[in-house]
Write a structure and sequence with these properties.
This protein is α+β, with helices and mostly antiparallel strands and 455 residues long. It contains 15 helices and 23 strands. The protein is globular and about 75 Å long. It binds adenosine-5'-triphosphate (ATP).
């Protein structure tokens, strides 16, 4: 693996993939803006996920629920009382830390803080003289729990104000719409609801580029099934989540499953898929068997009966839920890491090349006239292909420099328009990965590229 975080951040900034948020005002910590290339890549990642888990599933349906939800939703889900992290401040340099992260880092992953109470974490930190990563001192405040939900208020007048929250996960939108979706689609259990949308968390220790931010997008799929079939579907989604990553081009050596040691009280099973990020092995996505907890809680708090009635047997029951959840931005970071390559060429130069799956690449093809006076023909080709997929056009600089620019943003094909093109209507197509060039009639370009960029 050749990517480091610094190389990725610099490439992203320099090539219009991701910029620091509100940069001209000195930034806004841990927010990032996707640029012209980045927005395409991220949209393509989301499209690939949607295609796999909604479009290609014969019994999954998509929704797009509101970010702002009735506050009772978060009482029912348990977020109001327990969506918190164990926070500690360094008394010396005043930086804030998560106690569990301090223990994990100190023990180099050998001690699992997930199985500890707050008192046990405090004792561990004291007895092992765990130090502050910033100043090196070992003098912390006691642990305080810190709710990660962003609060805002709704209402015109002071008295009329109500506290509401920016959703910290998209999942609740799927749960509260379970009956709406089931009734309107006449879906039979088992069926799934998928959603892609923004989530917000007031993280104590955000950072590592887009790995952990305070505003991010989640892609979540909830599979509603009958108790007794849940373990089979849990295993199914563990594998489906893994296969999705392999199909995006991930090396299986860079992925691993990690079962949770401590389960949430309602969960029957939970695991993550971890990826070997430049910061080390870290969670990329989660798969959880959430039992009938969510729908039961919403039934209790809303007073609405969330039971499903089996149309054949007439049996009524609250389905179990298998949740598969992955951050679009975190997956983007993994995709960038995986794609990054540096290659030494025969002439001794180094080329940086992003070896994205063609379905993920921002532009599928770059149209490059060999000389400016071939521009008219080249633009004609651009206009034709741009009706089918994202293309870019570049006539500035030597052809070698233009190839390098496309390699750096991962454009899988470059089409060169030269003097023969006017006579025989053929062009040269260069492959990003092999750098091999083939000659092809213009009217075959569209089908050739369409075939190669399928996911
Ligand atoms: P972590 O342990 O990293 O805080 P989590 O277990 O709280 O993550 P979930 O609540 O299961 O995460 O969220 C599902 C997915 O959403 C994660 O696997 C990750 O891909 C993504 N995600 C969670 N928090 C963030 C964040 N602050 N920034 C970017 N992506 C996130």
């Amino acid at each position: 693996m050749k990517a480091t975080m610094d190389k990725l951040v610099n490439l992203c900034k320099g090539r219009g993939i991701i910029f620091p948020g509100s940069e001209i005002y000195g930034g806004m910590g841990n927010t990032w803006d996707y640029g012209p290339i980045g927005v395409e890549i991220k949209n393509n990642i989301k499209r690939a996920w949607w295609k796999r888990f909604v479009q290609e599933s014969d019994n999954s349906y998509g929704i797009d629920a509101a970010i702002l939800m009735n506050s009772r939703v978060w009482e029912a889900s348990g977020h109001t009382t327990s969506f918190s992290d164990p926070k500690m401040d360094c008394k010396f340099c005043k930086t804030r830390h998560r106690a569990d992260n301090l223990i994990e880092a100190h023990s180099k992953g050998k001690v699992n803080p997930d199985t500890m109470t707050n008192e046990e974490m405090e004792a561990y930190i004291r007895e092992h003289h765990v130090t502050c990563p910033k100043c090196g001192k070992s003098d912390f405040t006691p642990i305080r729990t810190f709710n990660l939900m962003f609060e805002t208020s709704r209402g015109v007048t002071e008295e009329g104000q109500n506290t509401i929250y920016l959703r910290p996960e998209t999942a609740q939108g799927e749960f509260v719409n379970f009956l709406n979706v089931q009734r309107t689609t006449r879906a039979k259990v088992p069926f799934g609801i998928g959603q892609i949308g923004k989530a917000f968390r007031n993280e104590i220790t955000p950072g590592n580029f887009i790995f952990r931010t305070i505003e991010f997008e989640q892609m979540e799929h909830q599979w509603f099934c009958k108790k007794g079939t849940d373990s089979e579907y849990y295993n199914y989604f563990k594998k489906a989540a893994w296969d999705f990553l392999l199909d995006l081009g991930f090396d299986p050596e860079h992925l691993r499953y990690k079962d949770h040691d401590k389960l949430a009280h309602y969960a029957k099973a939970a695991c993550d898929i971890q990826y070997l990020f430049p910061i080390g092995w870290s969670e990329l996505n989660g798969i959880h068997n959430r039992t009938d907890y969510d729908l039961s809680r919403h039934s209790e708090f809303s007073g609405k009966n969330m039971e499903y009635t089996d149309p054949v047997t007439g049996e009524k029951y609250i389905p179990y839920v298998i949740e598969y959840s992955i951050g679009a931005d975190r997956l983007m970071l993994a995709v960038l890491t995986e794609a990054y390559d540096e290659e030494t060429l025969d002439n001794g130069e180094t080329r940086v090349v992003m070896r994205f799956h063609p379905a993920v690449a921002a532009y599928k093809v770059a149209i490059l006239p060999l000389q400016k006076n071939l521009g008219e023909k080249a633009r004609e080709i651009y206009k034709k292909l741009a009706k089918s997929f994202m293309c870019t056009y570049d006539e500035a600089g030597s052809i070698g420099k233009r190839y390098r620019r496309q390699d750096e943003i991962g454009t899988p094909f470059c089409v060169t328009v030269d003097f023969d093109t006017a006579n025989d209507n053929t062009v040269t197509v260069r492959d990003r990965d092999t750098m091999e060039q083939i000659r092809m009639p213009i009217d075959q370009l569209e089908s050739y590229i369409t075939d190669k960029i399928k996911f």
